[in-house]
Amino acid sequence: MQRKQAGPARFLLDNLWGAMITNESTNSGASWEYVGQDSQPGYGQYTSLSHPWGGGATYALTQYVAGIRPVEFGYREWIVEPAYAGFGLEWVDATVPTPYGELGVSWRLKGEDAVVVEIDAPAGTRGVLKISRDWLCAGVDSRCDDCAGGKEDYVRKVKGGKKVQFRVEL
């Protein structure tokens, strides 16, 4: 998703991880280690039903769809660059524990013309909010003909210690 590939990422989320819970005959409550081309579990002699990769969707959603990523170890410095287009979502709310306290981010689409982002970062941290126009231009939005009208990315520095809100016109 670092290359703004919402389409393939959404396909995997909908079909790969979704398959683990929607098929009642193979739902074990655990993640599958192997998945066949037909989205069925790849049971075999060495198959584990508690392999940790199955939780990958969790961190991928936090880091890319919510957009919370560390720039410096421990989130003393961070970036929030949400994937606000391409996943069919209207809002996201996520929190990441850090050594300094919880780093919370929420975003909500306001019609087709704006996204509102709220960041609640702990004191002693700092970061950047980046609303990348590339999310609109990744082949998933009808406004991509001229890459969001040639607008530049929205970038703002944020200091932790207080909740801040930004409204960004798309």
TrEMBL record:
Transmembrane segments: none annotated. Residues 67-132 form the Alpha-L-rhamnosidase C-terminal domain. InterPro entries: 6-hairpin_glycosidase_sf, 6hp_glycosidase-like_sf, Bac_rhamnosid_C. Pfam families: Bac_rhamnosid_C. It comes from the Eukaryota. This is Bacterial alpha-L-rhamnosidase-domain-containing protein.
